[in-house]
# Entry
Amino acid sequence: MPEYNAGKVTDYADGDRKVIVCGDKEVGVFRLGDEFYAWHNRCAHRAGPICQGRMMKRVLEPVAEDHTVRAMEYDESEINIVCPWHGYEFSIRTGAHQGNSQVRLRKADLTIRDGEIYVVLQ
# Structure
């Protein structure tokens, strides 16, 4: 399986991302805390460049008993990536779409050796 160097672990601060060219594909590598995640740079909706979209906290809209929304809240523990084409939001940790968890980004495997991050494509 081909491996592509995505840089050193120390090149990524918390919340950083890089889009890596892996042959004829692009993969986004993300760091959240001490964890790394990698997703193919193709939105599950219309194949837009998802990994180049805005990263933001998950938006929550608590619904009151009268079915109104009075405020928005943000989930500090869940960071999403938002597709720049149509606004679809996916969890960086799981790849799941926030409105329909059956819709997911395509995961790329990562391995870390000697402080270097490698994207592994199958």
